[in-house]
Amino acid sequence: MQQTPDPYTLPCSPLAETCGLKYFPRMLGKIRLHAEGKLWVDLHANLGSGSDGALVNFLHLNYQDLKERVLLGESDEEIFKWCEEQSRPLNDTDKLIWNAYATKLGWNDHISAILDKRKADAGLAHRDDIQTIAHYIDVDEGRMP
Fold it and tell me: Taking the CB of residue 99, how many other CB atoms lie within 10 A of it?
């Protein structure tokens, strides 16, 4: 693992929630930090893609439109409401499906090889407790030992 980044350059954990939807506050935090010129450089490459892209696709939104809305300065809850107005309201099952995806990504799925490579590159290949992308991110960003 490389040196832990400055916490002021990091969004919240991918497991954090807004209005019952995991990862949503992380995506918004990345947008805000990037606009302020503060986002940890390692996170720049996946802005709008990766999990960001998966979530905006799940929400049936365009990332650029979301980014513009976020930069207006509204709260996460207000932006979540706007997302539903632009697309569709999410019911409990929608949230359950997304949250299961977000919390299990990298565990025996299409992202497993990427997780294994990231762990190896970071010197964490021996860490059997890191089984998902969310857990890897929390370790990589210094929120978990």
Answer: 16
**DSSP states along 9-66:** G----TT-EETTEETHHHHHHHHHHHHTT-S-GGGGGGTTSHHHHHHHHHTT--HHHH
Report the distance separating Cα 32 and Cα 27, nearest Å.
9
Residue 55 C-alpha from the chain's centroid: 8
Q: What is the pTM of this model?
A: 0.95
Q: Which of 12, 46, 32 is nearest to 75 (CA)?
A: 32
CB 1 within 8 A of CB 125: no
Amino acid making up residue 85:
E
Spatial contact of 17 and 90, defined as CB atoms under 8 Å apart = no
Per-residue pLDDT for 1 more than 70?
A: no
| 116 has a pLDDT exceeding 90 | yes
